[in-house]
Amino acid sequence: MSIQISAAFDSGNIRVVAIDGDTVDLEIVKDHESDFYQWFHFRVTGAKGRALTLRILNAAGSAYPFGWPGYKARWSADRESWRMTDTDYADGVLTIRHTCQMAITWFAYFAPYSMERHHDLVSRIALAEGVTHRQLGTTLDGQPIDCLTLGEGPKQVWLYARQHPGESMAEWWMEGALEFLTDEDNAVARDLRARATFHCVPNMNPDGSLRGHLRTNAAGVNLNREWHTPTPERSPEVLAVRNAMDETGVHFAMDVHGDEAIPANFLAGFEGIPSWTDALGEKFYEFGRRLAAHTPDFQTELGYDKSPPGRANLAMSTNQLAERFGAVSMTLEMPFKDHDANADSEFGWSPIRSKLLAHACLETLASMIDDL
C-alpha cells in the first residue's frame, strides 16, 4: 500500500513535495496573505508497520526557526492522546522519525484544538448554571466570536486566548479555566464567582484556527498588533472584543499564548506603558511570584525582555489594556517544547497540563482578587 498524506481538514496544514519509499518530503504552507508559517497538522495513511522519515524542507524559513532546536513533534493514533516523537533540526530541515503502528497516524506541531471542539466547549459551558453566552461579532470568514460570562462580583476579569491560532495550547488552557469556573463543587470557583465577573473568549481567531494558520486571521493580520486601532476590515475580532471590554471595564486580564522557543511557562507584563506605576506593576509581579509558589509548572526566571520606560507597544493587548483601563494585564506563554523545570519525557507540555495550569492561575487569582 502506498503512503498517503492529507491536511484537508479543520486546522490542517502541509504540502507534499515528494514520497520516496519511507521518506516523505514536506513543506508547511504560509498563512493566507502572510509570510508567517510554522504550524503543521496532517495525517498519514498506508504506513502501518513502516518506519517513516518525514522531512519538512522549509523549516528554516518559518516564523521562528530558533524554536526548532530541542523541539519534538506530536503524534496520535486516536486524536486524543498526543505524544512526542523523535525529531531533529539540521541544515534547515526539520526531520520527524516515527514507526506507525496503526492504519492512520496524525502529526501536529502541538495537540490540535479543532473548531468542532471549540463549538462543543462553548455549547457545553453555555448550558451551565449562571453562564451567559454572547456573540460579540463575526470574523472576516463569518464565524462567530463567542464570549462566555459568569460570576456576580464587582471585579471585571477578562480571559481570552488564541489570538495566534497555531498556539492551540491556549484553548486547552481556556477549556480548563471554564471547567474550573463552572464546577459547583469547587469552593474556590464559587468564591471567585462571588467576587468577580468573568468574561471568557476561548478563541479570538476562529478563521486562522480553521484555516491552519500559525499567527494570523483570514486577512493575514496578526491580531496582537491591532489593539490600538482595530478596524472592521482588518481585525473585526479585536474590535468586537475591545468594544465589549469598554462596556464592562477591566480589572484583570490574561491573554493566553504559546511560545516556540522558551522551554517554560512564563508571564509577560506591561512594562513601558506611558501610565506605568510601580504600584500597578507590583500587582503583576506578585501574581507571578504566587503562581510560581503554587505550581511546579510555572517559573519566573525565563521570559521575554521588558520594554524600556515609555516604549511599550500599545498595539499589543496586554499593554493596551493596562494603559486603557489601569488593569493588571498579562500575557501567559506556554511552550511548544516542555516546561523543563518539571519535564514529561513522553508527552512534553500537553493539553492536560495546560488545563491544570489554568486551575493554578485561577487559584492564584483567588488569593489576590480583592486587591486588584
From TrEMBL:
<dbReference type="GO" id="GO:0008270">
    <property type="term" value="F:zinc ion binding"/>
</dbReference>
<comment type="similarity">
    <text>Belongs to the peptidase M14 family.</text>
</comment>
<dbReference type="GO" id="GO:0004181">
    <property type="term" value="F:metallocarboxypeptidase activity"/>
</dbReference>
<feature type="active site" description="Proton donor/acceptor">
    <location>
        <position position="333"/>
    </location>
</feature>
<dbReference type="Pfam" id="PF18027">
    <property type="entry name" value="Pepdidase_M14_N"/>
</dbReference>
<dbReference type="InterPro" id="IPR000834">
    <property type="entry name" value="Peptidase_M14"/>
</dbReference>
<feature type="domain" description="Peptidase M14">
    <location>
        <begin position="111"/>
        <end position="372"/>
    </location>
</feature>
<protein>
    <recommendedName>
        <fullName>Peptidase M14 domain-containing protein</fullName>
    </recommendedName>
</protein>
<dbReference type="Pfam" id="PF00246">
    <property type="entry name" value="Peptidase_M14"/>
</dbReference>
<dbReference type="InterPro" id="IPR040626">
    <property type="entry name" value="Pepdidase_M14_N"/>
</dbReference>
<dbReference type="InterPro" id="IPR050821">
    <property type="entry name" value="Cytosolic_carboxypeptidase"/>
</dbReference>
<dbReference type="GO" id="GO:0006508">
    <property type="term" value="P:proteolysis"/>
</dbReference>
